[in-house]
Design brief:
Elements lengths: L9 E5 L4 H10 L5 E6 L12 E6 L5 H8 L4 E4 L13 H18 L7 E7 L22 H18 L4 E7 L1 E3 L12 H10 L4 E3 L6 E2 L1 E3 H13 L1 H4 L2 E4 L6 E2 H16 L6 E3 L19 H7 L7 H15 L1
Parallel strand pairs: 1-2, 1-4, 2-3, 4-5, 5-6, 6-11, 7-10, 8-13
Antiparallel strand pairs: 9-12
Helix pairs in contact: 1-6, 2-3, 3-4, 5-8, 5-10, 8-10
Amino acid sequence: MTTEPTDRPLVTVLGATGFVGSAVLAALAGRDLRLRAVARRPAVGPAGARAEVEVVTADLTDRAALAAAVKDADVVIHTLLCEGGWRAAAEPDGERVNVGVMRDLLDVAANPDRPPLVIYAGAASQVGAPPREPLDGTEPDRPGTVYDEQKLTAERLLLAASEAGLVRGVGLRLPTVFGEGTVPGTADRGVVAAMARRALDGQEITLWHDGTVRRDLVHIADIAAAFVAAVDHPAELAGRAWLLGAGRGDALGDVFRTVARLAAARTGGTAVPVVSVQPPAHAPRTDFLSVTIDSTPFRTATGWLPRVPLDEGLSRTVTALSHHR
C-alpha cells in the first residue's frame, strides 16, 4: 500500500471564486502540490488537476474561519475583494474585507520560526494620479479613492509584517486586467468586458473622454502566471511591492473599436459606434489620466513576461462573453 507524500507544499488561495483567484487556482493546479481553494461560495476544482485540491467554503471576515483556512499553509495568495469591487469600498463591509481580512490574516498566519509566503493582489492605482509615464514603482503613493486607500493600507500591513519576520510578504500591484473567466460563473467585471457586453447587446460603447486615454492592459492568463512566478521566487520578491504591466499603454478608443468589430463578427451585425459621453459626477480624476507601467524589476527578478497579445486577448474575451450570452 502506498501513501500520499506529505511534504508537498500547501498553497491556500483566498478568494478562489473571483476573477483573479480562480485563474491563479487554475494556473497552480497543474503542479505537484496541495491547493486549498477558499471562498464564500464553493470553488470549482480545476479539471484534470495534478495538484490535490481541497475546497473550503468560508466567510473570511470570520477570524476563526480565516485561521482554519490558512492553517499549515506554506503559501497564502490573497485575492479577496469586497463584493462589488472598487465601487463597494465605501460601503460598511468595504474596509472590513479590504483591510480587516489582511489584518486578521497576519495575526493568525504569523510564524517567525517558519514564516509563510503571503502574496497580495494589490492595484497599480494605489499610486493615485500617475505623476509620469511609465510608472516604475518608485513614485510616492497618493491614493485618490477609498478603494485605493484600503488597498494601500492592506499592502503596508503586509510589508510591515514581512519586515518584522512574521511572514514573507509580496505585493503584486495589478494593472487593468481583462479576459475570459476561468471557470463557469466567474466573469471579468472590468471595463473591457463591460464594453464587450454592451457591444454584443447592440448598444453603443461609451467613453468619458476622447478615447486617447491609455491603459496598461494585461490578460488574465498573464496575471495568473505572475502569481505563479511569485510563488517560485520568494527570496527575490519578499519584502516589497511590485508593479505588473505590459508596458504598452493602449488607447481605449482603439481598444473599444476593436471590441466593437469583434462583437459584430460574433453576432453577424454591424459594429456598434464608440462615442464620447458626459462623465458622471462621481468619476474619479484617475479615469481621465493615462497609465503605462514599466514592470522591468519584476520581470528581471522572475523572468515573467506577458505573452497574450492584445488582439488575441480581446478576441478571447469577446468570444467567451458571446458564448455566455
